[in-house]
Amino acid sequence: MTHLSIRPFAKETLGDFYAVHSQTNGAGWCFCAAWWLPDWNGWGERSAEQNRAVREAVAAADRSDGYILYLDSQPAGWCQAGARDTFPKLLRAYDLEPDAQTAAVTCFLIPPGLRRRGLSAGLLRLVLADLRARGFARVQAFPHCGADLGDGDVWTGPEALYKAAGFVMIHADPRRPVVQLEFNP
User: How far is residue 166's CA from residue 168's CA, in Å, rounded to a whole number?
Assistant: First the structure.
């Protein structure tokens, strides 16, 4: 029987973050830096070192912007999630008003050798439980939608994952959809 758990991103979990975001896993470039940048200009030209420096700055500032998934105590995934207003670029990209009661899920990474085992669903379930316990009223996510999405298209999480967790579409824009889950008081 396997055991799933999560730990918030912190200085102490930085090594586990890098174990998931590694060249071996095909993820040794972005380091989940995108939403920390002011805009998308030049994103594709950024180096791994530049993005890693952003991640190091997040850790040095004691900012937690997500969760590391552990499968039987071994790092097995990542979900960038937390207070939605932490990411002004996200608010601008989706034309959202600030709301301190809203959390956001912006990124998922499950290493290729661990995919299609239900780990994303387990990770999302654990993240949602923690966000609820932290007092958020709702969670929004920003999936790419469609039936023919490849692994590289679902870095924000597939729409089906969110639907299965009870999210509903609140903005059905084909380029910038928003799904939401309200927590009951």
Answer: 6
Q: What is the 3-state secondary structure (H, E, C) of 61-106?
A: CCCCCEEEEEECCEEEEEEEEEEHHHCHHHHHHCCCCCCCCEEEEE
Tell me the domain boundaries of the chain.
4-182
pLDDT in tens, the chain (185 residues): 589 999 999 999 999 999 999 988 888 899 999 999 999 999 999 999 999 999 999 999 999 999 999 999 999 999 999 999 999 999 999 999 999 999 999 999 999 888 888 899 999 999 999 999 999 999 999 997 766 666 666 677 888 899 999 999 998 877 788 999 999 86
Fold exhibited by the domain 4-182: Aminopeptidase (3.40.630)
